[in-house]
Amino acid sequence: MPTNKLRANMSYREVIPKNLSPPEWIDVKINTGTQSTLQDLKTFESSGGYCYKNRGNAQNRNRFIYWRTQQDVLELVEISLDISLQRNHLRLRFTDSAVLNVFLKEDANTLNLLVVTVSSVHRYAFPLKTTGLAGLSEDQTSQSIFYDVSEKINDPSSFHVTDGLGNLPSVAVSYLSQDSQTAYFAVAYQEKLLMHVMNCATGQTISNEIKEPHLMPRFLSNLKGALTGRSEAPEAAISMAFSEIEGQFFLLVLYRNNELRLWSLDNVQTLASINCSSRSTHGGSGTQGPQSNQLRKINDQDFCLFLSHDMGAEFICVSIMPDVEDVRGLKLVVQHSLSAPQMDLADFDATSSHIWALWSNADGDYHVSAIYLGSNDAIKWVSAALEPPPDRYSLNLERGIDPRQAYCSYIFHPGRFDRNIIAKALYMFRRVNMQFDVKQLSMSMLKDQVCQAVEDEIQNELKDFVVSDDEYLEIATRLWDRFYSCCEQYHMKFAEPTGLAVLEDMDAVCLVRRQSFSLLRPCEVLEHLLLIGEHNEEVATYVAPLFRNNPATAKGFVDLMNVITLLDKLISEDIKMELDNQLYQRASPLEVISKLVTRITVGDDNGPMLPSNCMKQMHQKLQEIPNLKPAVDVLLDVLCMIDPDAPRNDYSGCTRFLQPTGALFGSEYGLSILAETVRQMATIRFSVCRNLLVLQFMVYGSDGMDSECMLTNINYLNSYYTLMWISETAIPANTPAGFEASIQRLSRAQLFNGYTRPYASHLRNHGHDQTTLLSLFLQSKGLFCALTVLIKNAGMQMETEQLSLRESLLQLVGFVNKILWPESPEYIFPEWLFGTCHHTIVQDYVRILSNWCKVNSHSRRFMLAVSLLDCGEAHKAVDLFQHTAEGILAEEFLFEHVLKNTPIYSDLKEIISSNKKISVENVKLAKVHYYLKVIQLFEQHSALDYIIQLAHLAMNVLRRDDPQLPMFQSIVFNNHLQLGHYEEAYHALVYNADISRRKDCLRQLVITLFQSKSLHLLMQFPYTGLQDEFESIVESRARSISIDQNEVYNFLYAFHTNKGNMRKAATVMFEQAMRLQVDSDAPNALEKRCSSLLIAINCLNLVDHRYRWIAKPTIGDEEVAPMDEEQDNPDGVPKGQEVVVLELDDIRRELVHAEALLELSHHRKGVASLDKITPEELSCLLVSTGLYTSALKLHRGHTFSVLPIFEGLATACVTATEEKDVDAWGWLQNNDLADLPHRNNAADMAWTLLQKLLVNHESKDSTLIKKGVVNRLLTLNSFVPQWLIESYKLANSRELLQLFVKHNRLLEAADLACEMICAMLGAGCEYFEFRQSVAVTNPQLSFPTNTIDLLLHGLKINMNEDIEYEMAYGKLEEEVQRYIEIVKRTTEDKMSLAILHNREELRQQALF
C-alpha cells in the first residue's frame, strides 16, 4: 500500500459518470409571501456537497448529496454509488427570492437542510433510514431521502421571513447546533449583520444585529465613505462561518478590509481579530484585490481563507486557539500561508490535510488543483487531471466513409453526449421552437430524428442542383459537422464547473457542473507519474517504498516514466489513432512500432516527425538512467496484471445478480464510475506500453525484437489494447434479436447455465439503447466477481466499514482488470460474453486475441465456432470445432461446459484434480462426448451436411468394436436421410455394426422413401441379408396405411415381380383387393379391386400349374377368433390358425363378382353396401338394371340359374316391342352388342340380343332357357318370334306344343300340331327334332297324345264362338285321323314284315 506521504501527494483524476438515465426532478415551489427581489440583486451561481457519515450503516456508504443554486432555484441531488436511488433529484424554487446559502448536516435520524434567501431563512428535516439493509424492504432501501417530499414543505414553521429594512443581503451563512435543536442564520447586509436564531422544534425565530458600539455616529461614518469615494463600507462582511466549541457558538467574519473577526454569539462581542493583509507576502493596500475573498470552514477550530491582493493571491489557514495570556479568551492563529496560482478562483474547499481549488483562466478553461498541508516537503500544487471534452478530430473521416455513419457512431457512442444535449442541439440545428419530451425518447428514436433533420437540410441545399457524389459527400460532411458543433457547444455549456466539494470520507472530490457532476478519484502510481508532468525528482522519494525502499530503483523508474511522458507528448494524436487502428486490424506490434520509429527518426517525404533536438533529448535522458534495464523490469512488473503462480480465485459466490438493495459500486452511478475508471487506467497503461515499446526499439533496434523484455511488453500492449476495446465497444443494452432462441439452443445442448444470463440486472436502461461492453459485464456479473475477491483479500466487512475510493475503487479496478485480462486463468469474461449472443462482438473479441494470446485459445475457438454457427456460417464453424477437440481436457471452460453432464465427467474430474495422467482411452471418450454436444448444436441449426462430417470425425477416433460406433453410424444415416442422400443413407445402414439399429434405420429409410415417392431407389437397393426384414417392413407399412392412399401394395407387387416371385406378387394384389373390399369407401375402390384381382390372376397364370394357388391373407376382423370358438374347444387348447387356400378359379370368381359390382356401380348408387351380396342376388340386381350380359358373365363359375336373366331380357324385349320402354337404347348400350348386326329399331336390336345370348348360353341337349323365354313371352301374352319357334321345334317341339296349349294359344298350337303330324308323316320332318317320318323301316315316333287331346278339346269348346277354331278343329281332327290311319297301316305292315322275317329266320335255322 502507498505510504502516507505518497497518498498525500498523489494526484487525482476526474471520472465522469456516463450513459445515465435522464433525471426525474421533484419540483417544489416555496412561497414565503415576500416581494420579488431578483431584479435588484446580482447573485452568482454556487454549489457544494455533503458526504454522509457511515456510522456502520451500509446505506450511507459511498452516499453524498451535491447541490447548486441559480437565482431562486436550489437543486439537490442525492447520489449513492452502491444503491440505485429513486426520486433523488429535488428542485426547490423559492418564489422571487434568491438563494444565498445552503447548509447540510446529518444527525442520528435526520438530514437537516438550512437555506438562506435574501428574504427568508428555512430549515427542512429529511428522515434517514437507520435500520440497516436487513430491516428494510427492497423498495424502502432504494428510496432517496427526497422520496416523500410533498407540499408539507411549505409549512410556516419551517421558515422565517427576514426584514432587512429595505436593504438586500449579499452574504449569508447558516449552522445547526450539535444537538440539532437550534438553527443559526447570519445574514450580512451592506451596513449591518443580522443573526436569526430558529427553534427547530417550534419554528420560532429570534433576530438580533451583531455590532460593536462606535464612537463615530453612523451618519458621520456614511459621510466619510461618501467623501473618500467608496460606495461600500470597508467593514462590510464578505464571507462568514460558524463555529461551536465546547457548547459555545461563534461567528467568524471576513470583512472587505481583509480583517478577520471572531464574534461570540452569547454576548455579541468580538473575541479576537487579525488583519490578514499585514501577514500577506504579496503586499497590497489591505483591501480586496481583483478576486473575491472567501472563507471556508475546515472544522470548528480550523478555517481557510482565500485572499486576493493587487499583486497576487494566497490561501491562509487560521485556527481558533485558546489565548494563553487570557484564560477565558481565544485568539486567531495563522497556521499556513500558501501562494495561489496565477488564475481566477471559481471555488475552493478545504480539509485538515488539503486545500482543493477550482480555477479558470483567461480562455475559460477550468483546472482543479490541490495542495497538501501536512508537510513542508509537499509537491506544492498538484493538478487533477480533468477529462477533455469530446474531440472532433477523433472522427474517422477517411475517404469513402459515409459521413452519416461516421458522425452517428461518434455522437451516439454510449456516454459521449447526454441525451438532453443531443436534443437541444437538434433544436438549434433545426432553428425551430419545437420540443419534445426527452424522457420518452429513446436514443434510437433520437438518432432517427437527427438523421432526418440533417438529411432534410441536405435536400434543401440540393433541391435546385444536380451534384456529383463527391459534392454530395462534401455538403453532407459540412452539415453533419455543423450539427456536431451544436452538440459540442451545449456539451461545453452544460459541463462547465460551478463548484466543488470534498467528500472526505470517500477520499474523493465532487466537481459540480451546470447539469451534472463528476468525481475526482485518487490516481494509481502510473497515472500519477504520467499525468503530473513535473516535480518527478521529488516524486521518486515518495514512490521508493513501492520498490522495497530502493531509492536508486525508484529514481530510475521515475526517470524512465519521465521519458515515456515526454514521448507521449511528442507523438501526435493522429499517429496514436493510426496505431490503434492497426492493432485492431491485427497488425504485428513490432512492425507497427518499427514503422513508427522510422517515421519519428527518419521521416517520410515531409521529413522526420520529431525535431532532432527532441530525439537527442530523449536519447540523452535514456543514457542518464544508470539502471535502465532494472527500471524497465520494474515498469513491466507494475504493468503486469496477473501472477501466474498465485492461487486461483473461487467465484462460486458471485453467481447472483445486482439487486436494488445495493452492493459496493452496484448503483447506476457506481457502475458507470467503475467502468470509466477501468477505461482510464487501461488507456494510460496502454500508452505506457506503447511508448515503452518505442523506446525499446529506439534503444535496442531490431536486434532486440526477440528479447524477453520486449516480447513481454508486446504481450502487455496487446492485453491493454483488449481492455481498451472492451471498455469502449458499444453493445445493445437490450437483448438482441434471436437471443432467447440462441440461449435455448445452448441450454438444450447443455452448454449454458442460466445464472450467467447477461441481461438479468436490475438496472434499467431508461431509453439508452446502447451501453459499453464493460458496463454490461459489470452490471450482470463482473462487479460481484471483483467483490468476491475484494472481500476475500481485504478481509473486511463491507456492510459496516467505510471504504475510501483508494481502498475500494482502485482495488476493484485491479480485480476487474484481472478478470478481463486476456491471459487470465479464470475464463469469467469470455464465458459471460459467450452468453450475450452478440455474435459480432464475440467474433471481434476472438479475432483481436487470435494472433498472440495462447491461453484458453481452444475455448475462444469454441466460442467463435458457436457464434459462426448461430450466424449461419456452419462451414467455418465445423473446422473450428474440429480443431477445438484437441483442447477438450486442456482448458477448464471446455471441460466444465462440454463434459459436465456426461457419464465420464466425475471420473475425469477426479483424475485431473489428482494430477494423474489421462489415458488415451479417456481422451477418446472425451472427444466422443464433445462431438456429441457439437452435433446437438448443429442439429438445432439443421446443418445436416456438417453433422455427417462431425460424425465421421468422431468415428475416426473410435475403434471398430467400440459400442459408441453404431450411434454415430446411425447419426450419419439419419442426416443423409434428411438431406435426401438416400443411396448414402442405405450404405450407412448396411455398415452399421448394431443389428437392431440397422433394422431401425432400414425402417426409417423405407418410410422416408415412400414419403418422398422415391420408389425406384427402394426397388434397386440389393438388401443383402435384409430382404426378409425389408419385406416385413413394407408389408407392415402397407397394412398400416389407409387403403385409399396406399401405393405400397403396388410397390410390393413390382418388387416381387422384379425378383421373379409371382406367387408373392399375386398374394400382394389379392390382399390389396381384399382391403379395397373391406376398408375402402373410395369411388374408384371397385375399379382398383378389379384391377388387383386381374393382376393376381395374371401372376398365377405365369406360375407352374402345380403351384397356381395362394394362401388367403387375413385382414381386419378375420384375425379375430369366432364367437363360438370356446364351445368348439371346451378344453381351451389353442388352435392353429386356419389357412385358406385359393386357387385360380376362386380368384376368377372373385374377379367376376367384382366386375359385376363395378358395372352395377355405374348405374346404381349405394353399391358399396352390397359387398356381402351373393352372386345370385347380384345377378338379379344386374337384370333389374338392364345389365344382362354382365349378369350372364357373373354366372360363369357359379351354379345359380340363368333363367331369371333370360326371363328378364325377354320381358325387356316385349316392353321394347310394345314401345312401353322409351329408353330401350339406354339399357341396350349397357350390354355387349359388339357381335350383333345393327338394327334401326330398338325392339329388333333387343330380340337380336336375346337370340344371340340364348344361342350362346343354351346347352346342346337342353331347352330350359328356351322354355323359360317362351313361357315368359306367352305369360306376357306376347308373340313368340319365329326364330325362337323354329329353334324350339328343332330342340323339343312337343314341349313347345305343350306351352302353347298351356297358355291357351290354341290356334298356334293347332298349326304347330298339324305341322308336327305332317312332319311325322314325312312332310318336313327336317324342321323338327325327329329327323324321320313314320315308315315301316323307321323307328317308332312318340306322339303327344295327351297334349293333342287337350288341344282338340279346347278347340271343340271354342269352335262355336269363332269359325277359326272350328276350322282349326276340323283340320287338326282330319290330320289326327290321317296319322292314325297311316300309323295303323304302318303298324300292320311292320307286323307282316316281322312275321316274314321270323319265318325266314326259322327256315334258315332249319336248313343249318
TrEMBL record:
Superkingdom of origin organism: Eukaryota
Keywords: Nucleus, Transport
All copies of domain Nucleoporin Nup120/160 beta-propeller, residue ranges: 63-527
Transmembrane regions: none
Location(s) in or outside the cell: Nucleus
GO terms classed as biological process: double-strand break repair via homologous recombination; protein import into nucleus; regulation of nucleocytoplasmic transport
GO cellular component: nuclear pore
Domain NUP160 middle TPR: 821-1102
An example molecular function term from Gene Ontology annotations: structural constituent of nuclear pore
InterPro entries: Beta-prop_Nup120_160, Nucleoporin_Nup160, NUP160_helical, TPR_NUP160_C, TPR_NUP160_M
Coiled-coil intervals: none
Domain NUP160 C-terminal TPR: 1143-1392
Primary localization: nucleus
Record domain NUP160 helical: where: 551-777
Name the UniProt record assigns to this protein: Nucleoporin 160 kDa
